[in-house]
Design goal:
Structural class of chain B: alpha/beta
CATH topology of the largest domain in chain B: FAD/NAD(P)-binding domain
Number of helices of chain B: 13
Largest interface: A-B, 41 and 32 residues
Keywords (chain B): Oxidoreductase
Strand order of the largest sheet of chain A: 6-7-5-14-15-16-13-17
Largest sheet of chain B: 5 strands, parallel
CATH superfamily of the largest domain in chain B: FAD/NAD(P)-binding domain
Helix content of chain B: 25-40%
Strand order of the largest sheet of chain B: 3-2-1-7-18
Helix content of chain A: 25-40%
CATH topology of the largest domain in chain A: FAD/NAD(P)-binding domain
CATH superfamily of the largest domain in chain A: FAD/NAD(P)-binding domain
Shape of chain A: elongated
Radius of gyration of chain A: 21 Å
Protein name (chain B): FAD-dependent oxidoreductase
Order of helices and strands of chain A: HEHEEHEEHEHEEHEEEEHEHEHEEHEEEH
GO molecular function (chain B): oxidoreductase activity
Radius of gyration of chain B: 23 Å
Oligomer: heterodimer
Number of strands of chain B: 22
C-alpha cells in the first residue's frame, strides 16, 4: 500500500453500479482511486433499471451462473450491513400464459435447476392461493427463490458513502492516453488535461466501446417503465415479482430487426407499496424517453396479468438505455495487449444483479489478485481483432 | 375523420380567449378543460344549487362576455379532460376521465393555458390536517362551500385580502389575516398603483372589511410555526418588533404567491408540433393579462399554421408586468426573506412522502457533491403523487442555501436537472393508459355542458 501512494491512482470511468462498485471495492482495499462520470452517478442505465436481482430472468449459460453468484453477494452484503435495508429478498414468479410459453418455461426451469436455483411449480390452486391478484388465465407458474430487489441508484449512493468516494461529476473522458512503447495506459484525457493513472477501468456502458477502440461492439436497447401510486393492500398480496415468459422471449438475441420492439412484462411490488411495471426492449433507441404506444402496451399487459392494477394511478414513466453487446454477454476483464486497461461494460439489463459482484472481481483483477470466479466467458478479447487503438 | 388543427388546454380566461381568437381564422379548435365546467380558478363556477360569490369589480361581467363569445364561436368544448403531457413522438395526451381512457391526439398546434399554481412555503407544522392553501380555500368558497370555524389566513399577497373579503361577504370572516409585507408602510409605492386605475375599485372592495375591522390585519408579521393541540391548530406569529402572539383556530390558509403551472413541461418539445404558452402558465400576470395574452396566442397559432407572419409581440403585457412588479414591492416581506435552513429539521418539505429538511440535510452531509437528480432520487424529494410539483422548488432552494452556507457558490439548480420534465404531468389511471387510443372523431358531439352563460 505504501508504494501505491507515490504512484498515480486507478481511474474508473463511469459511476454506474459497475464502476462505482469497482471504485468502492478498490478504495475499501486501500487502493487510491478516482471515479469519473460524464454526468452524475447512476444517471445512465443504473438509474433507470428495474432493480431485479434475479437469476430467473437470465439466459442459461455463464450469465445464469454469474447471476447466481451475484444474488448471493447481495444476500451476503445485506447481512454484513453494506446493503442493509437496500436489498429485499423475495421470490420471482415466472408466468406462462399459453402452452407455447409453458414449453419455454419448462426448459428454463431445467436450466435454473442446473445452476442450483431453488425452483418449484405451483399448481393451479397453489397459484390462486399464493398469488390471489394474478389472473386465472395462466397455464403455468414457476416460483424461483433466493431472488431479490435493489434499487440501482440507492446501491450506488450507499457504495459512494461507505467507501467515502468523491465522484468527479461532469467529467467526460475524451480518450485514453497510452505510453509510447510499453503499450500501457498512462492516463485519461478530460477536456484539455490528462489525468495520470496507474490503471484504468472502463465501466462507461454505451460509452465504453469508443474508449477501448471497439466502437461497434455494442448497441443501445431502450427500456420503458411505469411506477404506480402506493397501494399497500394490493402490494402485500403479491409476495414477489411476476415475470411473463414473453420477457424471456424478448431477451433472445437472434434475428431481431432494427427498430424492433419487444415487450415482456414484469410487475414488481416495491418496498414503498408501489408497483414497478417494465419493460420494453427497443433496438437502436438512444434517447431515454417515453411514447404512448409503448406505455399503453405495458399498461395493458400488466392489467391483463394483474387485473386489480387497472384501478391504480401511474405516477411516472421513465426510460433507460441498456448497452447490449453483439453476443449478449458483457465484457468483463483485461483488454488484451494492454496490461493495465480493464473493461466492465455491456450488461444490457443485468447490471443491477451483476454490478456489485463485477466490481469486486474488477478490484481483484486490478490489484493483481485472483478473482473469486472465472470470468473468461466475458473476456473482452473475444471482440478484439487487432484493431485496438494504441 | 379529421384531427383538430389546434388544441387549447385550460378553460380559464387565457384558454377561452385563445380558442375564440384562433377559431376566427376558420381553423378547427378544440378546448379541453379538466373540470366539469369552464372558468379556471378565477371564474370557478359554483356547484349546482350554490350561490355564486361576487367577483371583484374589475372582473365582473368579463366571464359572461367571454362565455358569450365562446358560445357564438365554432370552438368545440370538451370538459373533464385533463392534459397529461406530450409524448416523445409529439402526440398530445388528454385523459378523458369520464370514458376512462387517454386520448392520443395529433393536432398541428397546441396552446397551453393551464394557469398558475399556488406557492406555499414550508413552515413548521404546515403539513398538519386543517392547513390548506389559501387559494384552495378560495376555490372551495367559489364552489359554494364556505370554510367553517375559526380561520386564519397567512402568508403574503393580495389574494389573502381577496379571500378574507369574500369570506366576510359569505358570513364567516377570518379571525385574522397575517401579512408578511407591510403595504401601509410604503405609501409612495402604493400611490404608484394609481397609474393602474382599473384596479382601484378592486382595492376598495378588498380594503372595506379591513376598514370596518371585520377581521384583524397583522402586517409585517410572520407565521413562524403551527402546532396541533387537541382539536385546534395553534399558530405562532412574530411581529416586526419581535413580539410573539398565538392564535387558536380550526383552519389555516397559507399563501406565498403564484407560480406558472408549467411544471414537468420540457423546454424543448418534440418537433413538428407548434406549441404556444398563454396566460399565467406563460407568466403570472393575473386574469386581465391572461385574457389579452390568450387572444394573442390564439392569433399567433392561427397565423403560424396558415403561414402568415406571426403577429405575436405580446407587447400589451408590459403594463400588466409593471403592475405585478409594483404589487410585489408593496407586499415585500417586512422582516426580510425567509431562510429555509433556519427551520427546524423536522419541518416537512415533501408532504406526499413526509420528507423533511433534516432528510435533505442528510443527503448533502457527506464529502460528495451530490447533484439535484441524486438528491431527488436518494432523498425521495419529488417522488410522491405530486412528482415534485409542490416541493421541488423548496428542495432546490434549500439545496442551494446549504451549498452557499458551505462556501460553494451555487445558483438554484434548474427543475430540468432533477429529471422531472416528463409525462404524465399528473397521475393517470393505469386502465386509462391501457385503453389509450387514437382520438376517434366519429363519436364526438359538441359538448356545451361546460358553458354556464
Amino acid at each position: 500500500m505504501r508504494e501505491q501512494h507515490s504512484s498515480p491512482p486507478v481511474i474508473v470511468i463511469g459511476a454506474g453500479i459497475v464502476g462505482t462498485a469497482t471504485a468502492a471495492f478498490l478504495a475499501m482495499a486501500g487502493t487510491p482511486v478516482r471515479l469519473l462520470d460524464a454526468s452524475a452517478p447512476a444517471s445512465g442505465a443504473t438509474g433507470a433499471a428495474d432493480g431485479a436481482v434475479s437469476v430467473a430472468s437470465k439466459r442459461p449459460g455463464p450469465m445464469m451462473t454469474m447471476a447466481r453468484a451475484g444474488a448471493a453477494l447481495y444476500r451476503e452484503l445485506a447481512g454484513q450491513g453494506l446493503f442493509q435495508g437496500l436489498f429485499h429478498k423475495r421470490p420471482t414468479f415466472l408466468v406462462a400464459a399459453s402452452d407455447a410459453e409453458a414449453d419455454v418455461l419448462s426448459d428454463h426451469s431445467k436450466a435454473l435447476g442446473e445452476v442450483g436455483a431453488p425452483v418449484r411449480w405451483l399448481t393451479r390452486d397453489g397459484a390462486a392461493d399464493r398469488l390471489p391478484s394474478l389472473t386465472r388465465k395462466v397455464v403455468a407458474v414457476l416460483e424461483v427463490e433466493d431472488e431479490g430487489h435493489a434499487i440501482g441508484y440507492s446501491i450506488v449512493s450507499r457504495l459512494i458513502s461507505a467507501a467515502r468516494l468523491k465522484v468527479e461529476r461532469y467529467c467526460p473522458v475524451a480518450s485514453l492516453e497510452y505510453e509510447g512503447r510499453s503499450g500501457r495506459v498512462s492516463g485519461v484525457r478530460v477536456g484539455g488535461a490528462v489525468i495520470e493513472a496507474s490503471a484504468v477501468v472502463v465501466a462507461a456502458g454505451g460509452g465504453a466501446g469508443r474508449l477501448i477502440g471497439l466502437p461497434d461492439v455494442s448497441r443501445p436497447r431502450r427500456g420503458q417503465q411505469l411506477v404506480t401510486e402506493r397501494a399497500p393492500g394490493l402490494n402485500a398480496a403479491l409476495p414477489g415479482s411476476l415475470l411473463s415468459c414473453s420477457y424471456l422471449l424478448s431477451k433472445k438475441h437472434e434475428g431481431e430487426k432494427a427498430d424492433a420492439r419487444g415487450y415482456g412484462v414484469v410487475i414488481d411490488p416495491l418496498e414503498t407499496g408501489q408497483f414497478l411495471i417494465g419493460s420494453t426492449r427497443e433496438e437502436g433507441r438512444t434517447i431515454p424517453e417515453n411514447d404512448i404506444e409503448a406505455v399503453a402496451h405495458l399498461a395493458a399487459s400488466a392489467q391483463e396479468m394483474v387485473p386489480a392494477l387497472g384501478q391504480l394511478r401511474i405516477l411516472r414513466c421513465f426510460a433507460g438505455i441498456r448497452t447490449a453487446t453483439c453476443d449478449g454477454l458483457p465484457m468483463i476483464g483485461r483488454m488484451p495487449g494492454t496490461e493495465n486497461l480493464f473493461v466492465a461494460a455491456g450488461f444490457e439489463g443485468d447490471g443491477i444483479c451483476l454490478g456489485p459482484l463485477t466490481g469486486r472481481i474488477m478490484a481483484d483483477l486490478v490489484r493483481g489478485e485472483e478473482p473469486e470466479m472465472d470470468v473468461s466467458p466475458f473476456d473482452p478479447g473475444r471482440f478484439a481483432t487487432g484493431s485496438i487503438a494504441a | 375523420m379529421r384531427e383538430a388543427d389546434i388544441i387549447v388546454v385550460g378553460g380559464g380566461p387565457a384558454g377561452v380567449s385563445a380558442a375564440v381568437e384562433a377559431a376566427k381564422s376558420g381553423l378547427s379548435v378544440v378546448l379541453c378543460e379538466q373540470r366539469p365546467a369552464l372558468g379556471g380558478a378565477i371564474h370557478r363556477q359554483p356547484a349546482e344549487g350554490a350561490a355564486p360569490v361576487a367577483a371583484l369589480p374589475s372582473l365582473a361581467r368579463r366571464w359572461q362576455s367571454l362565455s358569450a363569445k365562446l358560445s357564438a364561436s365554432r370552438v368545440e368544448v370538451r370538459t373533464r379532460r385533463a392534459f397529461v403531457g406530450i409524448d416523445s413522438t409529439g402526440a398530445v395526451l388528454i385523459d378523458d376521465r369520464a370514458a376512462g381512457k387517454v386520448e392520443v391526439r395529433r393536432p398541428r398546434a397546441l396552446i397551453l393555458a393551464c394557469g398558475a399554481v399556488e406557492r406555499v412555503r414550508p413552515r413548521p407544522g404546515w403539513h398538519l390536517p386543517g392547513v390548506a392553501a389559501a387559494g384552495g380555500l378560495q376555490v372551495m368558497l367559489k364552489e359554494g362551500r364556505v370554510p367553517e370555524g375559526r380561520v386564519l389566513l397567512a402568508g403574503s399577497g393580495p389574494l389573502l385580502l381577496a379571500l378574507a373579503a369574500q369570506m366576510t361577504a359569505a358570513g364567516n370572516p377570518p379571525v385574522a389575516v397575517v401579512e408578511e409585507g407591510d403595504p401601509v408602510s410604503r405609501p409612495l409605492a402604493a400611490t404608484r398603483l394609481l397609474t393602474h386605475p382599473f384596479i382601484l375599485p378592486d382595492m376598495a372592495v378588498l380594503m372595506m372589511p379591513v376598514l370596518l375591522r371585520r377581521f384583524l390585519w397583522r402586517r409585517g408579521t410572520r407565521l413562524t410555526e403551527i402546532t396541533q393541540s387537541a382539536d385546534m391548530l395553534s399558530a405562532r406569529l412574530r411581529a416586526p418588533d419581535g413580539r410573539e402572539e398565538r392564535f387558536e383556530v380550526d383552519r389555516i390558509g397559507l399563501h406565498d404567491g403564484l407560480r406558472a403551472n408549467d411544471f414537468g413541461l420540457t423546454a424543448d418539445p418534440p418537433s413538428g408540433l407548434v406549441i404556444l404558452r398563454a396566460g399565467d402558465l406563460r407568466e403570472v400576470l393575473g386574469a386581465h393579462a391572461a385574457e389579452a395574452d390568450g387572444a394573442e396566442a390564439g392569433r399567433e397559432a392561427a397565423a403560424r399554421l396558415e403561414g402568415r407572419p406571426s403577429c405575436g409581440s405580446r407587447s400589451a403585457m408590459r403594463r400588466h408586468r409593471a403592475l405585478q412588479h409594483r404589487l410585489s414591492r408593496i407586499f415585500a416581506p417586512a422582516q426580510g426573506a425567509t431562510v429555509l435552513r433556519d427551520c427546524p429539521d423536522e419541518t416537512v418539505i415533501c408532504r406526499c412522502e413526509g420528507r423533511t429538511i433534516g432528510h435533505l440535510k442528510e443527503q448533502l452531509a457527506g464529502p460528495d457533491a451530490v447533484s439535484a437528480r441524486e438528491l431527488r432520487l436518494n432523498g425521495r424529494f419529488g417522488m410522491g403523487a405530486c412528482q415534485g410539483r409542490f416541493c421541488s422548488e423548496w428542495a432546490l432552494s434549500l439545496m442551494s442555501e446549504l451549498r452557499r452556507s458551505a462556501g460553494v457558490p451555487a445558483s438554484p439548480p434548474d427543475f430540468a436537472e432533477t429529471g422531472v420534465c416528463r409525462w404524465p404531468l399528473r397521475p393517470v389511471a393505469l386502465s386509462s393508459l391501457a385503453n389509450a387510443g387514437i382520438y376517434d372523431d366519429t363519436r364526438t358531439e359538441r359538448h356545451i355542458e361546460g358553458i354556464s352563460a
